[in-house]
Amino acid sequence: MNLIPYIDIHTHPFRNETDTVIVQNIFPGEGFAAFTGRNFYSVGLHPWHIKSHEKDNELLVMVEDALEFDHVIFIGECGLDKKAETNFEEQKRVFEAQAFMAEEFRKPLIIHCVKAFNEVLELHKKLHPEMPWIMHGYNGNIQITKQLEKQGVLFSFGQNLFKSDAKVIESFQYLNSDKIFFETDEVDDEVEKMYIKGAQLKNIPVELLKKTIWDNFKRIENISTNLF
């Protein structure tokens, strides 16, 4: 019987961990490491990197070109950030363009959202996407969590689970395990620690949580179970 791997749904540094499947986020135009069967990619235009209408269109073409590679399985991270210095209307335009790409290429969307949950919800209701939207680095309160969950949005948790912040803990404990993922983002640590913390918060065995997250990953991506 194959071992069930950990899933790191969103990370920036390349990790070569034999017991983990990673989805590494890269900027449009960056190269890919050789495919090992465990290293996948997401490519997208982050709201921090919004430039101008013309330049952003060039970068969006690069995102679209990258989606032709088999091991680029997600679009993103993309999204909305009201704390960013970039133009918010342009952020919305670029985000919507990538949401359309997600539908066209049949790839889940990894979303960066800061103080813009209402706008993300509005766009989701407008587009009625078939592909999963995954809120990465999630830290929303229970009220917004329920609204997003009702729309079918999924959630990825990381270091926020270790903060003494009641809102994210409450949201995590409220959500069924089939709605969640774990990530390391830019944290220099193994995703296993997120699983251990998550299992403690849900009062379930780590192995059960691993199986559920693996099943979640297979469900949204049809990833082969013969990776390990």
Describe the structure.
- By secondary structure, the chain is an alpha/beta fold.
- The protein has one domain (6-221): Metal-dependent hydrolases (TIM Barrel, Alpha-Beta Barrel).
- 39% of the residues lie in helices and 19% in strands.
- It is built from seven helices and eight strands; from the N terminus they run E-E-E-H-E-H-E-H-E-H-E-H-E-H-H.
- Strands 1-2-3-4-5-6-7-8 form an eight-stranded parallel β-sheet, sandwiched between helices.
- Helix 5 (166-174) links the parallel strand 7 (154-157) and strand 8.
- It is globular.
- The mean pLDDT is 91.
Key descriptive features of the protein:
single chain; 228 residues; alpha/beta; TIM Barrel; 8-stranded parallel β-sheet; 7 helices; 39% helix; 19% strand; globular
Output the CATH topology: TIM Barrel
Number of helices: 7
Mean pLDDT: 91
Give the % helix: 25-40%
CATH H-level superfamily: Metal-dependent hydrolases
Number of extended strands = 8
- Low-pLDDT regions: none
Structural class label:
alpha/beta
- Give the strand order of the largest sheet, numbering strands 1, 2, ... along the chain: 1-2-3-4-5-6-7-8
Biggest β-sheet strands, sense, barrel: 8 strands, parallel
Question: Could you spell the SSE succession in H and E letters?
Answer: EEEHEHEHEHEHEHH
State the domain count. Answer: 1
Percentage of residues in strands: 15-25%
CATH class: Alpha Beta
Distance between the termini: 9 Å
CATH architecture: Alpha-Beta Barrel
Radius of gyration: 17 Å
Overall morphology: globular
